Amino acid sequence: MDLNKMFQEKFRFYARPVLAFTTAAAVLLLLYVKGPRLNNNYWKTQGPCITSLNTKMDNIQHSVGELSVDIKSHQNKVPARVPSPVPAKPTPRQAVQALPFKKKIPWQGIAYKRTNGSWVADDSMCTEDEVFDQATLKTPAGNTPIFIHDVVKDHSVSKYLKTVGNWEPDVMYTAFEALKDNKDHVFVDVGGNIGTFSLAAAKLGHRVISVEPYAMNTKRLCRGVVKGGFAGQMFVIHNAMSELRETLSFKLHPNDIAMTRVEKVTNSTSNTDTVTSIQMNDLLELFDMKSAVIKLDCEDHEVEVMKGAEIFFQKVDVRMVLIEWDKLIVNQGTLYIIEMMKRFNFKPYNLGKNAKALDMSEYTRWKNRNVVFKKV
Fold first, then answer.
1. pLDDT band of 363, cuts 50, 70, 90
2. How far apart are CA 75 and CA 81, in angstroms?
3. Quick check: 67 pLDDT over 50?
4. CA angle, corner 360, sides to 357 and 365, nearest 5?
């Protein structure tokens, strides 16, 4: 073994601790000799600053203590304050109305009803609280959403709208024939149901007044107005239309809501829903119109409607009247409609592309489901 190498390794092993010990001893000796001088110099320069800082801290603590005493004394003299009530969380509708520059709720101003001699908004008919089946209404002016009943409960109109997309297209096309002549013609749909013809006329760009007494239909009408973008153009009247202003009830048809009709209130119908009736003349209180196209589908209540429309026909230039006729041929009051049409210069025709004039004197023999009276 190399002795020189072994000696070097042992030297490195013992040298490090010895060096550390020697350095520490030297530092301690220096502090012992010069420490008092360092301490004296330090306190001469930094002592006044520390004393001043301590004084400021004592002053702050004293001030905080006095403030605490004052606050406790004030609380003992002044009665406890009743906390202000926390405002209730606004409903979604209130929140929308409270926002500046927010558009009004889309269903506001769509539905109206006449009650106790005055017109009032009936926004309760136009909410989005209920879920309705939706179909696509196909019209010559394009498609638009329409909200239907369960096809089991309404196996005529709703079923056809869901499967085909329209109902009685001959009525729709005949109404369009008159409406397209003048954009100012207002379409008055008496017995609007769920909006098959009203929404089609609105899609064409016309102002529409859809009169529908049955709330289950009225709600769907309103939804069609909102989803079709017709707010401000199409209006829903939640009243029945008749000769007299009175309270009427409903006669429901099993499995066919479209055939619901109004009737006089009797003891047997006292538990059913009721609705207030208006005259067609009353529409002039709410709407300003110069010309109109009228559709009547009131399940054999058309005679009563026309008896309440004399002033309307005098004030408004009615260009066309579409009437569901198949039930009127056995109605003893139908002659009133015939005489009224004569007085206002209307002639009857059947519907369709090849429409032909009908003999007014043969009205009880007309086999047409629908008839149109055109002003000459």
1. very high
2. 10
3. no
4. 95
From the list 110, 119, 111, 109, the residue with the least C-alpha distance to 245 is 119
Taking Cα atoms as reference points, which of 222, 225, 180 lies closest to residue 205?
A: 180
Residues 142 and 191: beta-carbon distance below 8 Å = no
How far apart, in whole angstroms, are the C-alpha atoms of residue 146 and residue 165?
A: 9
Which amino acid would we find at residue 78? V
Diameter of the chain by CA atoms? 148
- pLDDT given at position 178: 94
| Listed residue (222, 161, 228) closest to 196, CA to CA | 161
Helix (H, G, I), strand (E, B) or coil at 239: coil
Token pair in block for residue 218: 């009225």
146 in helix, strand or coil? strand
* Interior/surface letters 145-170, b for 16+ CB within 10 angstroms, e for the rest: bbbbbebeebeebbbbbbeeebbbbb
Q: Which two tokens stand for residue 129?
A: 């609280």
Beta bridge partners of 257: none
CB contact set of 80 (below 8 Å; sequence gap of 6+): none
Q: In what order do the strands lie in the sheet with 261-264?
A: 240-241, 274-278, 247-251, 261-264
Burial of 74 (0-12, 13-18, 19+ CB in 10 A): exposed
Using alpha carbons, select from 268, 267, 262 the residue that is nearest to residue 249.
Answer: 262
Tokens of 12: 């490195």
Q: Which residues pair with 357 in a beta bridge?
A: 349
Q: Is the pLDDT of residue 133 over 90?
A: yes
pTM equals 0.72
Rg (the chain; Cα; Å) = 45
Beta-bridge partner residues of 135: 146
Percent of the chain with pLDDT over 90: 62
